[in-house]
Fold these 4 entries.
Entry 1:
Amino acid sequence: MPPAPQRALDARPSPRPAVVRNAEATRRRILEAARAEFARHGLGGARIERIAEAARTNKRMLYYYFGNKEGLFLAALEATYDDIRAAERKLNLEALAPLDAIERLVRFTWGYFVEHPEFMMMLNSENLHKARHLKKSKQIHAMNSPLIATMAKILRRGEKEGSVRPGVDALQLYISIAALAYFYLSNAATLSVTFGRDVLSTPEMKQRIEHIVELVVAGLRP
């Protein structure tokens, strides 16, 4: 049989793009399933079998992409941080007046924690392990440093304009903002019982965010 014409050979579509897309989709499903599993059960209680089933794949693919359970947990942690940092970048904080920018960040942080309880659960799990997995991450610092740098620029601009008191450390400010939301939400059950108020009720939640905003903004003013 004569060889196929070169034109016909060149016209054959390459299967590689479809293969790459399928691989990326599989990896994404595994990560999404893993984050839900780790948030619900922690590292110790999570089961690879449940993750594979939820991701519509098999255990072999999990090990192929992530190496082992701990590698998958680290990837899930990195994805968790990446999501909140990506959402923060969309806030366009540097376009706002300094105190308005900080207020927007405070309201965003509260709203994100409320809407994404898995974020706090993943962090709780990693803190139980003394950040053992994050210490192995090659990208966690690069993910988080830009936000603090942006806040520092905003604070310095506020100092020059006279709207922000001098000497505020951007990292300490961010930790305070996160803590004011994090502690309240992660301890809501015990707070409600201890003080006899449903701290997750709509009125209490509205009061809480306004209190946080007032506290943070007032603390920044000269």
Entry 2:
Amino acid sequence: MILDKYKTIIFDCDGVVLDSNRVKTDAFYKTVLPYGEESAKVFVDYHQSNGGVSRYEKFKYFLEEIVSQELEGYRYDDLLGIYASEVLAGMLKCQVAPGLKELREKTAHTNWLIASGGDQKELNKIFTNRELLDLFDGGVFGSPDTKEFIFERELASHNIRTPALFLGDSKYDYLSAQTVEGIDFIFLSDWTEVCDWEKWAKENKISCIPRIGCILN
């Protein structure tokens, strides 16, 4: 794979840099379980069908569309707090993508960014703790800003320089990359929770690799 042409490489976090998709799915389930097992299962299905969308939007959807009445102690802000605690514990322990640091060495000429649906403050804390922050010289960005907004803002400030490459593992990642010119997209399949990714990728003629380390081959 020719990487020399890219001036910026943008990474999603969950399922790309960290093997954290299952961490977040489990956290969503546990957080809303007081509303009942059936509601929790419906919410997990919604979450997995909308990978890359922020927790802020997902919990709003849960309270507005899945359940009819809020429970004391499990309202919007409560759910965000419970979920954040669950996620932080899991993301401090989950696997980092093999080959990440080797790729950084081979692409020293490029600017690296994170554009994630995860909470931006939380991501910076996790990346600092796991000694990954210095790899991403262009910054670690996340919600409440959307990926589309992050792309537009960082392009306008010339922090994202084109041609750029975005590595993601969700349909939303692909659609986000399509909103701006000059950003190519590659789908990473090993840790994705997109159940029909092979059919979807083929229909949309999307380049796919299993994991970050495969770019080095």
Entry 3:
Amino acid sequence: MVSAQIVPERVDRELRQGGRMALIADISVPDLPTGSATIVATHLENKCSPACRRRQMQALLAEVKPDRNLVVIAGDLNTTGRDNTPTSIRNEIMTRVRDYRFWAGEAVSHFHPLGVFQYTLLPVRYFHGYNDPTAFHLPILWDNREQPLFKTMEEFRFADDGAFDFRGERERTSPPRGRTLANSNQRGRKGFTPTYAFARDFGGLVGRFKLDWIFVKPSKLDRRQTEQSHRFAPHFPLTMRELNDSVAERISDHPPMTVDLSLTEATKLVP
């Protein structure tokens, strides 16, 4: 990491060889119908826009689409909701000039009688998607630019008509919290349990992010329908923040995450 001090802000430049990629491996699990599971470890780009990360995920999904195994995709998706592309003042100006959302927002604020109130809603809009990149997205008026990535994941179908488990059943989470993806990713009081935090986050008010995710394709699933098989489905996800913070320097800047995968139809739920 190379740092430069440019008054009045600090710019970090990360020198890389190559680009982001995914690692895909088949592991032998005799109890599964195909005898194997496909495990995908991925890391999406942080120095690009949410739309760019969505395209990266679409490319990865195209690779695994023919797979008839149970599939687990997990890793750092960098779902900050922001475009962290290295930039300059000129690039920032040109980005706005070319962005229809910028001009649409300006039109709303200047010509609509209630346009001025969009600025008073900025804190509400910020906390709407805080730690929940899956939250409702309405371009311009109620932006959550990461949500289309999750829409892509939810609507994706494998060649065998399998889908990722987006269920959120309270009885299969601990502590019991429902809603989207709760079966595979631990939810917090607001949104999901963060997996990354700045050193100074002002008591959690800002600077905490849910960047790391686990997506599971079980044996048979109609995405959000709860009254169906839970065989090979995710249960009791956990983000180990306490373990990660148990040493002074932290184990990692991202805490480990786990989820239970049932090899048989779960009849008794034990977190």
Entry 4:
Amino acid sequence: MNPDQGNNLSERTDLPTFDEIYEAYAENILNYLYRLTGNKEDARDLTQDVFFKVLQNIDKFQYKSHIYTWIYQIATNHARNHLKRKRRYSCLSFVDTEVSDLMDQDRMEAWSPMLATAPSPQCTLEESERDAIVRSAIESLPFTYRVPLELRYYAGMSYNDIAKVLKISLSVVETRIHRAKKQLIKKLRPHIEDL
């Protein structure tokens, strides 16, 4: 899913208002920061910080890139700094994800909510155990691999947009995502029967 899907901010030539920007991106940024931090309160605080910085600097935005790549860049920097500070005090938890999304490169898509049908208690328990294994594997990835993976498969960004957000080349983005997937598969291989 493209971050601009469903709104026309990327097509405009004039600067959108802060309220329009917040309405279009706040939920996506909150979810992104939650997946990076594993903590709802931290994600909320960081989201406020991100949009405060957007508000302070919106008049300096020059449309050299999409506005969402600029906002994700701010969010990534805030998350990186926050996690560096927090790393000293606790272990990090990470996102809930579908194993099939991690194991099957062709099916890696943005996370979508579970179907409306209620799962059986046995399915719920198995899914919870599976998610804990995957969460642990993702948490153990270096930040430099985890962030591009997040931006690609949870934020739905193109490789070009990820390169802009992280200020790295397209080939570095491709390499980091490839290495992240290889590391995840290696880490999850001993748990295949449990997944």
